[in-house]
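Anyone able to model this chain together with uracil?
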Amino acid sequence: MRAVDLIRKKRDGKTLTKEEINWLINSYTRAEVPDYQMSAFLMASLLRGLNKEETIALTETMRDSGEVLDLREMADPKIGKHSTGGVGDKVSIVLAPLLASAGVVVPMIAGRGLGHTGGTIDKLESIPGFKTDLSVIDFRNTLWEVGTVISSQTSAIAPADRKLYRLRDVTATVESIPLIASSIMSKKLAEGINGLVLDVKVGSGAFMQTMEEAEELAQLMVDIGNSQGVKTFALITDMDEPLGKTVGNALEIRECINILKGRGEEDILEVILTLGSLMLYIAEEILEETEEVGVFKIKEEPIVKEKLYEKRINLESKINSGDALEKFIEMITAQGGNPEVVPNPGLLTIADKIMPIKAAQDGFINRIDARKIAESSVLLGAGRNKIEDEIDLSVGITLNKKSGSEVKAGDILAVIHYNKEDNLQEAISLVESAFEISSEKPEPREIIKKLIL
Ligand code: URA
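re: yes, here you go
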């Protein structure tokens, strides 16, 4: 085969076979196809699209380019969770110990922040000593010991995706639904899981700006997961406003500790409990399923709702009893971090220079634009524009008010935590303009937009 023929075929809108995709991706991973040819192929794929079979073939090839964890020796259901990325999205850090405290094994390979979105790995690294670059052996041992583990994508996991993602980042080929779906799913399917819940974000702070795009991405990832025998559900959730009260790495860990202590903000708690109950639901389905492993049974929606309600109560009890927090302490300790941050969050380094942002008028908070808050946080140094950039884990933004709150002129809406003055003025303007104040109380936000079973 020749790369040029496959590029031409895709350029002309034709469909590639599984063998052709396999050859192209494997040759690129071995550096036998150069970046310039792969860039052309990616652009042709972005413009012409990939059908479901091509997308599944691409996912399988990227997953099989590295190690696929074999966790069959662990009898319990192993359920993964993934978010397509957002602002203030610290959900994984709470869900992993919460679900482990409810008896579900949760292996997680997470990412770093890029562009305006934050990353779970950066957030965890703000815990002193916490190791996120676990070898496959340490990953497996921690999972055995604690029931959950969160690590970064090592070079052993889906190396083809790693190489392709870097190339997409600099060739304007990230924004393609089949490329995003296959990239995410290749890593998730390497985790050795038998169930998966996806949180597809939609809104100003998300990759997907419209419900239509979010549904297309969610459905494609659900189809890929199920084609591989992994029971996959997706939720579409709102990312028009930052989740919870904080944006910025150490600040978000402090908030996670508060959530696990039972002091979570309503919006983030809703996302955590809905995703968590779905994870428990899938785990139970897997336990019940005997001979037909991998065959997906779609349930009547009212039954699903009732079952999800039971699971939610169970998860709330794990927070209220302190079991979930205990599991978080175990997880921090097993990954080399200082567990004292839980009783004493003052051990987290948070920038001590602060700038309050005040309301200019009386009224109700109508909206807090997630994208503007995220851009402000990147300007302060909390985010990166290139994957190699160093970031400042101690800076960020605390939201004192959320949408729907009534405010008086002069009330503090948010606090900026900063170290450097460089971009401060611009960061302040962005936070000020992120808050939209109106005279009428807005309708409550719809956080959970759709469940894709
Ligand atoms: N996250 C990924 O892992 N891959 C993408 O393509 C986009 C977001």
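The chain has 16 helices and 13 strands.
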